[in-house]
Specification:
single chain; mainly alpha; 2 domains; 16 helices; disordered N terminus
Length: 401
């Protein structure tokens, strides 16, 4: 009898609901894919973490659509049958999951595209696939919440209320706790961060708890399994929150991959194939400084991602990416200025802009980033060159101790 009722319950859902949800979800995922591509594509975890944020928009969509779907089922003859046979929970569960599946699939496809874009830039190694779970599970969980609200609230307000609840709870879970449940590394945009198992586990437990509570809050149906699962999920989540997030990141350890001799360029294994072209780009920038002033101070013999400490002759490399023109120029100029006291003003911005123009041409996108805050008259070619040469000359006055 249960199977017969559930089989018939697939029919009355309005056919446009899933289609409309998919279209909106695709738009949300594309919004994330097309923004800040230069930043999240520098790391596979960064791509997964950034695209996982789309769940904060897709999950409310799933909640709203599931609420509308549950209302359609509840107002039909099958809804009456489900109530008479006390199969409310089965109907809510089926409605929520049925409408969550296409949204989760859209989210997975967008995640694969994001990782593909990152890998196309030369990244290698296995992507942290478990990072896809938190966002996908949250979408499914809030679809169950929406189905519950649609089953209980018999007005057109059920869908917007479900979307608002989903969005508000996700914002709180993502930003208001010591263990952000959609921040998979605990260090957003930190190159070299690794996927943290405690964050992923906490997210999965929170999603499971939300889904089980939503189904259990339905008016009638068996509760034996709900209490056990909800209790276990709650206990696990409380345990993780009590222990607190791990502070260990891959950036705490020395990068293992290096190329070249003087200078030597080191980076995380994920960007192994990018280290040689990055070294060539650094040599081009330092050569341009030498052409500007042959007496320029010596540059570090080693450039590395990750922590540098107080080691002599070693300089910080923000990210080993030969296409990150602005970042590499800034890293080289920062190394040039490392011995200049903080209270001494040097025309470093003008030097950065001059280097970018000299090496990459006046139309390179990095120039607009480096030129922020510089008055227009100082951006004239001759004025830039004079300021750049003056900056190198001023740096020569200071020696590292």
């Amino acid at each position: 009898m249960i199977a017969r009722v559930l089989a018939r319950a697939r029919g009355p859902h309005p056919s446009y609901l899933a289609g409309a949800a998919i279209v909106i979800a695709v738009a949300c995922e594309m919004l994330f894919l097309l923004r800040r591509s230069g930043e999240w594509s520098q790391s596979q975890l960064g791509a997964i973490e950034w695209q996982g944020g789309a769940a904060q928009l897709v999950a409310p969509i799933g909640a709203a659509v599931a609420a509308a779907g549950a209302q359609a089922v509840g107002g039909s003859s099958l809804g009456v049958i489900a109530r008479l046979q006390r199969r409310d929970r089965a109907s809510v569960r089926l409605t929520g999951l049925r409408l969550a599946v296409p949204l989760v699939a859209v989210h997975l496809v967008a995640m694969l595209i994001a990782v593909g874009v990152a890998r196309s830039r030369g990244l290698e190694g296995a992507p942290p696939v478990a990072g896809w779970l938190p966002g996908a599970l949250m979408i499914a969980a809030f679809s169950c919440v929406g189905a519950l609200m649609g089953w209980r609230i018999r007005t057109v307000l059920a869908a917007p209320i479900a979307a608002a609840v989903a969005f508000g709870v996700l914002v709180m879970l993502s930003f208001s706790l010591d263990l952000p449940l959609l921040d998979l590394s605990g260090a957003a945009n930190v190159i070299g961060a690794v996927l943290r198992g405690d964050f992923v586990t906490a997210s999965a437990l929170a999603a499971l708890l939300i889904a089980v509570v939503a189904v259990a809050a339905t008016p009638s149906g068996a509760l034996s399994w709900s209490y056990a699962i909800a209790g276990a999920a709650f206990a696990g989540l409380v345990g993780l929150l009590a222990v607190g997030p791990s502070e260990r990141l891959r950036t705490d350890r020395e990068p293992a991959v290096c190329v070249g001799a003087v200078p030597q360029v080191c980076g995380f294994p994920e960007r192994r194939r990018l280290l040689a072209p990055t070294r060539a780009a650094i040599l081009d920038i330092t050569a341009a400084v030498r052409r500007l002033d042959p007496a320029a101070p010596p540059f570090p013999s080693r450039w590395t991602e990750g922590p540098v400490g107080n080691r002599a002759g070693v300089s910080q490399l923000d990210v080993a990416d030969p296409d990150d023109h602005a970042g590499l120029v800034t890293d080289v100029v920062s190394a040039l200025l490392q011995c200049v006291p903080d209270d001494v003003f040097v025309d470093a911005p003008e030097l950065e802009v001059w280097l970018a123009r000299e090496l990459y041409g006046p139309e390179d996108p990095s120039i607009s980033t480096l030129a922020l805050g510089i008055p227009a008259p100082r951006l004239a070619p001759e004025s830039l060159r004079r300021a750049a040469r003056r900056a190198v000359r001023d740096v020569r006055r200071y020696r590292c101790r």
